[in-house]
Amino acid sequence: MKKPSKKDVMKPKAKASQAPDFASEREEAAWWDKHADEFHEDVIAQGQYKPGLKLRRTKPVTIRLAEADVELAKTLAVRSGVPYQTLMKELLHEALKRKSA
Predict the structure, then answer these.
(1) Any domain includes 7
(2) What does the alpha-carbon distance between residue 8 and residue 21 come to, in Å, rounded to a whole number?
């Protein structure tokens, strides 16, 4: 096995703002869990931070839903051109915001 060169060892880390393409939402969640702090640092370093800006983190959850609701979400997501889990997350967020107002 070839020993890594000093150049290879000293490569800078990829910035979190340069997130790779992910094969699954689970892979993406794991990546963000590991790189979220770097992303926040990038936002601040690039001058994109605004007072009051909340950098949201996500938390994986398990929830049982009616099959018909999931199928409808998938259909609507295809029409919208977004992954169905993203659509469901957006709908839940909007409903919670309306309910809390």
Answers:
(1) no
(2) 23
Number of domains in the chain: 2
Instruction: Supply the pTM of this predicted model.
Output: 0.45
| Judgement on whether residues 45 and 81 belong to the same structural domain of the protein | no
Nearest to 55 by CA among 74, 32, 79: 32
Task: Return the structure tokens found at 99.
Answer: 């309910």
Q: Indicate whether 12 belongs to any domain.
A: no
Please answer whether residues 58 and 29 qualify as being in contact, where contact means their C-beta atoms are separated by less than 8 angstroms: yes
Determine, yes or no, domain membership for 99: yes
Domain that holds residue 36: 22-56
Task: Give Cα separations from 49 to 16, 31, 40, 41, 56 (angstroms).
Answer: 15, 22, 9, 9, 13
pLDDT in tens, the chain (101 residues): 555 554 444 334 445 456 778 888 788 877 777 777 776 666 666 665 555 555 567 788 899 999 999 999 999 989 988 889 988 988 998 999 899 98
